[in-house]
Specification:
The protein has about 180 residues and is mainly beta. Helices cover about 5% and strands about 60% of the residues. Strands 1-2-3-4-5-6-7-8-9-11-10 form an 11-stranded antiparallel beta sheet. The longest helix is centred in the last third of the chain and has 8 residues. It starts with a strand and ends in a 7-residue tail after the last strand.
């Protein structure tokens, strides 16, 4: 095809379910609109340190709009929820659902916020950015209980602050072919 191709699609298999409108532009750029998705959290494993262990749960959400060029996400607007969150290294931890919202960044790429859905042994608040050069995640984990085991587990993930919270910073390049 040498022109612009627009199609409605539904993809299902290997635990992944996605549907929406895809547009392929002349230069090979892909854009999506009204995209609904659901996939196993284990697909996020290349983005987190191996020390957290196997990722459990399901990520689902919507992208009102998104564009990708040469496998690099350039912009996106939408939200996602990671439900039934679990980490192999934290088997006894009661984790809250994680919520993310994203929008196009002024300087290019994607930026957003991460929070929790309430409940769980700890609260989560932070920001993330995704650019062709890589990603960055800055979050604060705040224990909700006085349980010393919860605090000890969270302290393994990042830097302890005077207020008892734990700051976690991750950054890196997107693995080839991800997701």
């Amino acid at each position: 095809f040498t022109g612009r191709l627009v199609t409605d699609f539904h993809l299902s298999g290997a635990g992944i379910d996605a549907a929406g409108e895809l547009t392929r532009e002349r230069g090979g750029a892909l854009s999506a609109a009204g995209l609904r998705f659901r996939f196993p959290a284990a697909r996020l494993a290349p983005l987190v340190p191996a020390a957290v262990g196997a990722l459990r749960g399901t990520v689902s959400g919507t992208l009102d709009s998104a564009s990708v060029v040469h496998d690099l996400p350039l912009r996106a607007q939408g939200e996602a929820r990671w439900s039934e969150v679990g980490f192999g290294a934290l088997p006894s931890m009661n984790c809250p659902d994680l919520l993310a919202r994203c929008a196009p960044a002024e300087a290019g790429g994607i930026e957003g916020t991460i929070g929790d859905g309430g409940g769980g042994d700890f609260g989560v608040a932070g920001t993330f950015s995704l650019k062709p050069s890589g990603y960055r995640l800055d979050i604060r984990l705040a224990p909700r209980t006085g349980d010393p085991e919860v605090r000890a587990i969270l302290q393994q993930l990042g830097r302890s602050e005077a207020d008892g919270s734990i700051v976690v910073a991750l950054e890196g390049r997107l693995p080839a072919g991800w997701p």
